Amino acid sequence: LVFLKQLQKDLEEVKELLTKATRKRVRDVLMTEKHKLELEIKNQPPPKLKDVADEEKLSLGGYTVKINNYGWDQSDKFVKIYISLNGVQKLPSENVQVNFTERSFDLLVKNLNGKNYTMTFNNLMKPISVEGSSRKVKTDMVLVMCRKKREEKWDCLTQVEKESKEKEKASYDTSDPSEGLMNLLKKMYAEGDDEIKRTINKAWVESREKQSKGDIPMDI
């Protein structure tokens, strides 16, 4: 890419000299050089997409890190998202950008200690006001303020989070209490450590033994 720019500058200078040259021999030499440069420029391979991407990356100041850790709370008017970033308060204001839509926002922090940081939230739980939303930079933290369109409580931050919680609740919230308890025990067993699994197994064996002796009804 740099070499191509040099060739183009050489060609511009040759063209400029041609407008000033009056001797035939000088003009012939310049015309030959002009044709040679034009041919060389024409035969230059196009810049690779990777090179362009690398240049853009360098202009941003390093590689990009996706932010996954955050905290959030809410008031009557705002949903507040807290993102910890060491030293973020030292950056120029334009290096911390947040773009809002009615149901999403994305954060870009450019060139913080040689890295860029991004965070995107799509499908927010409820609509927000783009004009009323903003961001504040504090010591080692970015605070994103999403202005609620309606002053109502949000149970979750995103629609996906809500659906995930409902699915988890449905897995052990059934009309049959014993079935719900069994689903909960299965979940605890699947996610528990060896000690929890041993405890559940022991309780299960003891329960089956009591059933076989007729100490408790079989349907419990």
UniProtKB/TrEMBL annotation:
<keyword id="KW-0833">Ubl conjugation pathway</keyword>
<dbReference type="InterPro" id="IPR007699">
    <property type="entry name" value="SGS_dom"/>
</dbReference>
<dbReference type="InterPro" id="IPR037893">
    <property type="entry name" value="CS_CacyBP"/>
</dbReference>
<dbReference type="GO" id="GO:0005634">
    <property type="term" value="C:nucleus"/>
</dbReference>
<dbReference type="InterPro" id="IPR007052">
    <property type="entry name" value="CS_dom"/>
</dbReference>
<dbReference type="InterPro" id="IPR052289">
    <property type="entry name" value="Calcyclin-binding_UBL-bridge"/>
</dbReference>
<dbReference type="GO" id="GO:0044548">
    <property type="term" value="F:S100 protein binding"/>
</dbReference>
<keyword id="KW-0539">Nucleus</keyword>
<dbReference type="InterPro" id="IPR037201">
    <property type="entry name" value="CacyBP_N"/>
</dbReference>
<dbReference type="GO" id="GO:0015631">
    <property type="term" value="F:tubulin binding"/>
</dbReference>
<dbReference type="GO" id="GO:0031625">
    <property type="term" value="F:ubiquitin protein ligase binding"/>
</dbReference>
<keyword id="KW-0597">Phosphoprotein</keyword>
<dbReference type="Pfam" id="PF04969">
    <property type="entry name" value="CS"/>
</dbReference>
<protein>
    <recommendedName>
        <fullName>Calcyclin-binding protein</fullName>
    </recommendedName>
</protein>
<dbReference type="InterPro" id="IPR008978">
    <property type="entry name" value="HSP20-like_chaperone"/>
</dbReference>
<feature type="domain" description="CS">
    <location>
        <begin position="65"/>
        <end position="158"/>
    </location>
</feature>
<comment type="function">
    <text>May be involved in calcium-dependent ubiquitination and subsequent proteasomal degradation of target proteins. Probably serves as a molecular bridge in ubiquitin E3 complexes. Participates in the ubiquitin-mediated degradation of beta-catenin (CTNNB1).</text>
</comment>
<feature type="domain" description="SGS">
    <location>
        <begin position="143"/>
        <end position="220"/>
    </location>
</feature>
<keyword id="KW-0963">Cytoplasm</keyword>
<dbReference type="Pfam" id="PF05002">
    <property type="entry name" value="SGS"/>
</dbReference>
<dbReference type="GO" id="GO:0005737">
    <property type="term" value="C:cytoplasm"/>
</dbReference>
<dbReference type="Pfam" id="PF09032">
    <property type="entry name" value="Siah-Interact_N"/>
</dbReference>
<dbReference type="GO" id="GO:0007507">
    <property type="term" value="P:heart development"/>
</dbReference>
<keyword id="KW-0007">Acetylation</keyword>
<dbReference type="InterPro" id="IPR015120">
    <property type="entry name" value="Siah-Interact_N"/>
</dbReference>
